[in-house]
Stage V sporulation protein AE (Clostridium aestuarii), 120 residues
Amino acid sequence: MNDYIMAFLIGGSICVIGQILMDKTKLTPGRILVTFVTSGVILGALNIYDIVIKYGKAGASVPLPGFGYTLAKSVMKEVDSVGFLGVFTGGIKGTAGGVSAAIVFGYIMAIIFNSKTKGN
C-alpha cells in the first residue's frame, strides 16, 4: 500500500508543478513539456532522479521527467557498451517500447472513439 501512496505523492507533485507553471507563467504547454523532459535528463545524468524513482516508482517513471530519465540512462548504458555510437542509438533503444505502445494504443483509441479536433 505504501508504494501506491508514494507513487501518488511523487506523480501528483510533478503534476502540481506542471499546473503551477501553466497558471503562473506565460510558458506554453510545449515549453513546459520540454522543461520536464530536459529536467528528467539532467537529473538522470546526475543520478538524482534515481532516488525519486526508488521511492516514487511509477509515479516518477511514467510522467515526462521519467521519459527524460530513461533517455539519459539508456544513452549512458549504450555508450558504456558500444562507445560513441551509443550517443545516437541509446535513447532510441531505451524508449522504443514506450513510444511504440503510445502509438499503437493511440491508434486503437482513434478507431474506437469518434475523435474530433478541439474546435469542433
User: Anything to note?
Assistant: The CA atoms of residues 21 and 37 lie 14 Å apart. The chain is about 80% helix and 0% strand. The two ends are 42 Å apart (CA to CA). Residues 2-112 form one domain.
